[in-house]
Write a structure and sequence with these properties.
single chain, 375 residues, alpha/beta, five-stranded parallel sheet
Length: 375
């Protein structure tokens, strides 16, 4: 079986139906929230010619794991099974192991630049990233992604009014449906305040103590709420990388959002978030599809030297990335960590157009070309 997880409104159902319609001679789509489909599910009644079953929101059924296990064990030679759902699917599937060894789990993210451009780049861990050639269409697509974010509806509609309304509705449904139903949080208004606070904290070290004080809650509650927002794909945190050759900062993570269009008034933070998202998507893609163990971290030592991102494979550095809005001067911190830790590949990305320079082993490259070279 295949499980597709990801943020609300990222396109999981649309993808599943596209697969059923275009890659199988016949399929049967069943949504647990639709009463006739729910009746068919409970009665094990499927189309006779179906080659794949598409289950949507079935995790809302109390015995969904045993249900899928029974179908899979009996029909695995004749049927394929694809399961999608809200972010709660990821939370529920971790409990118990009745489905262990019976499914692959893939995380579906918003559009990246390469995906929006329909580029299929073959990246191999521990090898240099093959940078795509400069293209007139790169910058235009990058600007759209920058402005509207990567979620399909606002990106494809390219309408600012729709983006504002869509964002409000998405956050309301996240709070009122997903989080409330699963977590039973009493003070949902405080969670809403926390969500509103996060854009101004993007790219900075995240202090739970500061959040606790702003919300007037205890440390345990603040930590729990941040875990919830990460589990529901609203935000993600990256942590400092510990290495024997540097006195690394080990505690506080940095925060980023899955929808960088929420960040207003701080172009530097939005740019850093955009790059962070693309690197996270690369890590998840190679982990989910190829079985590599990739992690996204950042570098910071006790002397205050910092590099924005480090991608590791099996806990060993693959490449580091420093993000600069306009500066063309090579980062001394990137140079220091690259030499000290023997990082194979070093990149400094800038918003300036048509930049491609290599100096001291560091590739200084325009951000649109760099992101278009990922997945």
């Amino acid at each position: 079986m295949v499980f597709i997880g990801g943020a609300r409104q990222v396109g999981k159902t649309s993808l599943a139906r596209f697969i059923g319609e275009n890659h199988f001679p016949a399929h049967h789509y069943l949504n647990w929230d639709y009463t006739p489909d729910r009746r068919d599910i409970l009665q094990y009644r499927f189309k006779g010619n179906a080659k794949i079953l598409l289950f949507d929101e079935i995790h809302k059924y109390k015995n969904w794991k045993n249900y899928l296990k029974g179908i899979f064990d009996k029909e695995k030679e004749a049927l394929r099974i694809l399961v999608t759902g809200s972010a709660r699917l990821d939370v529920y599937r971790r409990g118990g192991d009745s489905l262990m060894g019976r499914y692959y789990h893939y995380r579906l993210h918003p559009f990246s630049l390469a995906e929006f451009l329909e580029k299929e780049n073959a990246l191999v861990p521990d090898q240099e990233i093959p940078l795509v050639a400069a293209d007139a269409g790169l910058r235009e697509s990058y600007d759209l992604l920058w402005k509207f974010g990567g979620f399909p509806e606002p990106l494809l509609k390219q309408n600012e009014r729709f983006l504002r309304r869509w964002r409000i509705q998405r956050l309301e449904r996240l709070i009122r449906e997903d989080i409330r139903d699963l977590e039973h949080i009493r003070d949902l208004s405080a969670v809403k305040i926390l969500i509103d606070m996060l854009p101004e904290r993007v790219g900075s070290l995240l202090s739970l103590n500061a959040i606790r004080e702003d919300l007037s809650v205890d440390h345990k509650t603040a930590a729990h709420w941040m875990d919830i927002l990460e589990a529901f794909y609203h935000a993600f945190r990256i942590y400092p990388f510990a290495h024997e050759k540097i006195k690394s900062l080990r505690k506080q993570p940095k925060l980023y959002l899955l929808d960088w269009s929420e960040i207003e008034g701080n172009d530097g933070a939005r740019l850093e978030n955009l790059v962070a998202f693309h690197l996270l998507k690369l890590c998840h893609y190679l982990t989910d599809t190829q079985g590599y163990r990739l992690d996204l971290c950042f570098l910071r030592d006790v002397d205050g030297r910092e590099v924005d991102f480090l991608v590791t494979v099996d806990n060993k550095p693959w490449f580091a990335v420093e993000v600069k809005a306009s500066a063309r001067a090579i980062s001394n911190h990137l140079k220091y960590f690259g030499t000290r830790m023997t990082i194979p590949f070093l990149y400094q990305v800038t918003e300036e157009k048509n930049v491609d320079v290599k100096q001291d082993g560091i590739r200084l490259i325009s951000v649109d070309r760099f992101l278009a070279s990922l997945v």
